[in-house]
Specification:
The chain is mostly beta strands. The chain is built from one helix and 15 strands, in the order αβββββββββββββββ.
């Protein structure tokens, strides 16, 4: 999570430096292509159920660099795509076997979001969005609690409500803060299906980035 904190601090420094001599506001316009680079924190809410042994599936918090691209159909309406990948420790808490480590896994969660910008001509320009998320899990490994020897996590598809704000520091440069809640409930198979579970990960994804507008 330090990555997100550093990104937010850098954004505040950039904003403070720009505050003394701001240009006229350009605003958001149809045809704009905006590319952002920053960091995200993925904060699972954790829940679900586990067959046979009971307990609660859990995934750890994680942070990662993020790239995103937006296209504006009109000044008020845009489409945004994010790309990032994060690693999480996964486990089952309070099962009949105690706390069971299921190793670690990488998540690849591209999210395509339609966003509405009510104040496209303002320097501080908030937005609301609704996205579609598809998450693939890969690279399962790490330390396992015996008798666990194999873990598979299925891909998921879910909606992703979104809120955020852009701050224009130069006609083509923006600072961005963004938050999403992703419906993410993968099926989990342990030891080739001997134990099955559904993990209600449902993470909050918070991010900070610097964006350039073409």
């Amino acid at each position: 999570m330090r990555i997100v904190g550093y990104a937010a601090a850098a954004m505040l420094a950039l904003g403070a430096g720009a505050a003394s001599g701001q240009d006229a506001v350009r605003g958001k316009q149809a045809g704009d292509i905006v590319v952002g680079l920053g960091a995200i924190g993925v904060l699972p809410t954790n829940g679900g159920h586990v067959g046979r042994i009971g307990g609660t599936p859990t995934a750890s918090n994680s942070a990662s660099p993020q790239l995103d691209v937006s296209y504006f159909f009109t000044p008020n309406l845009s489409q945004n795509l994010i790309a990032a990948t994060t690693q999480h420790d996964v486990s089952v808490r309070n099962s009949a076997l105690g706390n069971v480590r299921l190793g670690d896994v990488w998540a690849l969660p591209p999210t395509l979001t339609l966003q509405y910008h009510p104040l496209p001509r303002a320097r501080i320009s908030p937005y609301l969005g609704l996205g579609l998320n598809v998450t693939w899990f890969y690279g399962e490994g790490g330390r396992l609690t015996a008798p666990v020897n194999r873990v598979r996590i299925d891909p998921t598809v879910g909606v992703a409500p979104n809120i955020g704000v852009d701050y224009e520091i130069r006609p083509n440069w923006l600072l961005n803060l963004d938050a999403k809640w992703i419906l993410m409930q993968p099926d989990v198979s342990v030891n080739s299906g001997l134990i099955r579970a559904r993990a209600d990960i449902n993470p909050f994804v918070v991010g900070a980035s610097v964006r350039y507008r073409f």
